[in-house]
Amino acid sequence: MGKHLGTLIWAVLLSMLAANPLWAAEEDEEPAPFVTPELVVPEPASAVMGWVDSREAQSLNGSWKLLVDPMQVGTPGGFFGGWATTRTPVDAFQLLEYSYPDAADIRVPGDFNTQRQELFFYRDTVWYQRNFNVEAEADTRYHLWFGGANFDATVFLNGAPVARHKGGYVPFSVDVTAHLQPEGNDLVIRINNRLGDDTVPTGRTDWWPYGGLTRDVMLVATPEQYIVNAKVVLNNDRNAITAEVATEGFAAGDEVTVVIPQLDISQTARISDNGDAQLSIPAQPELWHPDAPKLYRVELAAGDDRVSDQIGFRTIETSGTTIMLNGEPIKFKGISTHEEPIGRDGVAYSKADMRVLFNEAKNLGVNFVRAAHYPYSRHAARVADEMGILLWEEVPIYWNIAWENADTLAIARDQISRLIERDWNRASVVIWSVANETPYSESRMKFLGRLIDDVRELDDSRLVSAALLGDTRRELKHVAAHLAAHGQGSDIASDEEKAIFQGVLAAAGEAAPEPGSSFTLVIDDPLGELVDIVSYNEYFGWYYARALAPQMGVSEQTIRKLMLQFIPQVTMSTAFGKPMFISEFGAGAKAGKRGEGVWTEDYQAAVYRAQIAMLSHSPQVQGMTPWILKDFRAMLRSLPGIQDYRNRKGLIDQNGRRKQAFYVLRDFYNGPWADTH
Ligand code: GCU
Fold first, then answer.
1. Which residues have CB under 6 Å of ligand 1?
2. Atom of ligand 1 minimally distant from the CA of 586
3. Looking at the domain assignment, is residue 275 inside a domain?
4. Domain region containing 86
5. Which has the least CB within 10 A, 66, 164, 454, 472?
6. Measured in angstroms, how far is the CA atom of residue 136 from the centroid of ligand 1?
7. Percent helix / strand / coil, the chain, rounded to 5
8. How confident is the model at residue 473 (pLDDT cuts 50, 70, 90)?
9. Is residue 354 part of a domain?
């Protein structure tokens, strides 16, 4: 052992010597062995570069190289030298312990978890690398534009760290004009998809934290003076189109022009000294609607810059407990989704993926999709615009977040502002959601209050919501009493169980409900004061029985059977005079499993029938997005032979095989709720 240790010590000393020759003039600080220094890296551009699909851009999608780095040795300045540039040994004597040219290929866009089986559960650092050439033109700026990178990305170009972005799913870009060379630009991206207590989301999610360059990557060219972004929407009076334009490099007094040929509109405004310009243009456009998703070509011009987009014009607001689309009441007949394609594991990163997924949603008869729980690619809202699907988009403030951590808040604020600045021209997007099932606390209220303020400052033309949790303990107490009242006369319960129900009712005293009496559940989470639509996740028929059975000392089978009879007697409401929305209900089923009990299609369909009976007679409920269209990957869901790391609450399985409950929901949307829009 002594000999080996001695060799190792020599190796360490020699490498330190190489890094810092003893004859160095000044006393350089000794690099501590094996400690990787924190890199100082610039932030990306704070504003999202919009309208990119109309710009001259070189796609950097395709085959990249990938190195896996579980011990973060690739970071420059560390003991092993760093992997921020492509290097190959000059001869047989040069020792290099990494190589991009010899590394395996990886497709971009796409997560690395499902492209390499050995990376399926991997939650740490990888390094992407590719070369690209560019024929740079004069008076042109070049921006590296990323549709999103999960979850902590550092960009190196020709060895220089040019940007670091924390927080996945949303676009970021950086002007790299100064770093470009004509040939062989060496582009390296370090990405760590580890999540923890202080990240957004945290490390515990009921979806797969797919990592990597999961979205498009482009080199976008702009003139020296260019349009950064613009929000173009119809005002709530539906008689004018407003445009808020942000520019870079122009002088105050320079002009920006908005042209909408089909509306015979061409209007100019002057750019102010902060680079912004505002226009309000009288207009009576044909309104975008799910039944008639009309889109207009909108062109912007400023200096030499030209951009365009296809934009639909509509209004969305609430009136009391009603949701109004274009001034008319509407019910959101929806379904929840995750950003996974049908037939393939991994991220649904393309327009084609989203078309297939949303088409199956349309087959349910929906007019609405809840794109849970994080920003999808920009293609999702684009496809929804074209197909006439209303969208709920959200950021992954999911379950318990580090509410008091300033860095966590900064990531959350960055994510929601980037999502909004990317999609604020998408007519399909009608709801921004700031949270999912976050337990009540003062610090949670402060954190979410800040996010909601940000949303309203950025975009007051859409609604704000959050998927709330009730006070499950209080609810379960009431439900237990009702189940006891219902069960004491039922032939479902055994004599022993009926005796237990008698005890529950006796303990409830005066408050004991009558058999068959209805139960009104009132959502009163204080967040309801701050949002426009009070949205609620409930799992009557699935989770509640698992909690109640042991508490009551009654078999889960009895509770489940009584619950299915009881649910239609429940009425959902809120303590706020606002529209109520059921953002989740559901049950798990393995496609093809039939008969009695959980995990069968029959049980899932029975839960849907009971839920629909309940929700369709709850007058405050103005929409629903049952959980969920498709079975999806989840590390929480391991049950061998049933889940195998998939959440099975889908109405279709991962390959698109429909379950019975698919037809139960479709019949409801095409039947009793058919004429609700
Ligand atoms: C929660 C949560 C979902 C989760 C679902 C489930 O409500 O919002 O992300 O997948 O329930 O338990 O299946």
1. 206, 373, 436-437, 537, 584, 627, 647, 649
2. 13
3. yes
4. 52-220
5. 472
6. 49
7. 25, 30, 45
8. confident
9. yes
pLDDT mean over 459-477: 90
310 and 328 in one domain? Answer: no
Whether residue 241 sits in one domain with residue 383 = no
Q: Looking at residue 316, what is its pLDDT?
A: 98
Asked if residue 40 is part of any domain, the answer here is no
| Cα–ligand 1 centroid distance for 206 (angstroms) | 6
Q: Return the SS3 of 568.
A: helix
Ligand 1, atom nearest to 205 Cα: 9
In the predicted model, is pLDDT for residue 229 greater than 60? yes
Least confident of 8-22, 60-74, 347-361: 8-22
Q: Which residues contact 128 (CB under 8 A, 6 or more apart)?
A: 64, 65, 66, 106, 108, 188, 189, 191, 212, 213
Amino acid in position 550: P
How many domains does the structure of the chain reveal?
Answer: 4
Pocket test for ligand 1, best of 205, 647, 648, 651 (most atoms within 8 A of CB): 647
Which CATH number covers residue 118? 2.60.120.260
Residue 367 shares a structural domain with residue 262: no
What pLDDT is recorded for position 25? 47
* 263 and 352 co-located in one domain: no
Ligand 1: residue whose CA is nearest its atom 4: 206
C-alpha 616 – ligand 1 centre gap (Å):
22
547-574: burial string, b at 16+ Cβ within 10 Å, e else: bbbeebebbbebbbbbbbebbbbbbbbb
Whether 612 and 505 map to the same domain: the answer is: yes
The closest residue, in CA terms, to atom 9 on ligand 1 is 206
271: domain CATH number is: 2.60.40.10
Give nearest CA residue, ligand 1 atom 7.
Answer: 537
